[in-house]
Amino acid sequence: MYTSVMDFKKTFQLIGLPPEEAEILSILYKEGNLKISEISSKTSVPRTSIYMRLKSLERGGYVTRSKKGKISSFVPKNPEHILERLDSTTSQFSEILPSLLRATEHSGKRPKITFYESQFGIETIYKDMVRCARSKDIVYVVESAETIKENLERLSGRFILAWQKNMIEKNIITQGVITGDAQTIFANLSEQLKNVLRQRASTVRLQSPANFPFSINLYLVGNDKTYICVPQNELVMKIESEEIHQSLLTMYHLLYAAARPIQLSELLK
Predict the structure, then answer these.
(1) Which domains does the chain show, CATH number per domain?
(2) Whole-model pTM?
């Protein structure tokens, strides 16, 4: 049976790829090895966006790049890789979901869970946090040095700056627990980003990496929204449930109480 590019695109979007990346990957599976100029002529993706989208696909392990002289071309990886990514996604979240879902058993209310994948998914949840939080709301944050570093590598400097400024403009407060080894990462941030962070209404505490129970980013927003992000695998989950939010908030406060306070100015010096 003939499978159209549009069918491929829909499938790739179902596993979390943003529309432009899904379209590029679809044409690569149909056509094979293509140069950027050829991808541009065969898709509706603006040429200015193609290189960035290809880099994201390459990072995600969906395509490989070959070079002949100064000309790069791209070829899709074996389709089995997509199945591996789906298995990986299931595995990551299957470890988290059972304990979270148990929190909803007595209420009878089923949580609304949305999955995202790729850099697009990470950007989506950060934008959603700003949209959902109200002025003077506290966003509770748990991050390890590893996940902070991964996010800085995957998200553009422009996006990070814009997001931080949006948090300031909306007067959203953050209260966070990070691992002590993240201090070096903050010290090496650009001066432009440091200056923006100094304007944030934010408190931070440090926890020893040895006592840190997460290999994920955790964000608690409002009364019912939980965001779980695994940036090293570009996987994101949004859970809308008051019971799950409250259970994780209780755990967060225990972690925060045991952590060491540090001034933001000291972290950014």
Answers:
(1) 5-77 (1.10.10.10), 82-267 (3.30.870.10)
(2) 0.65
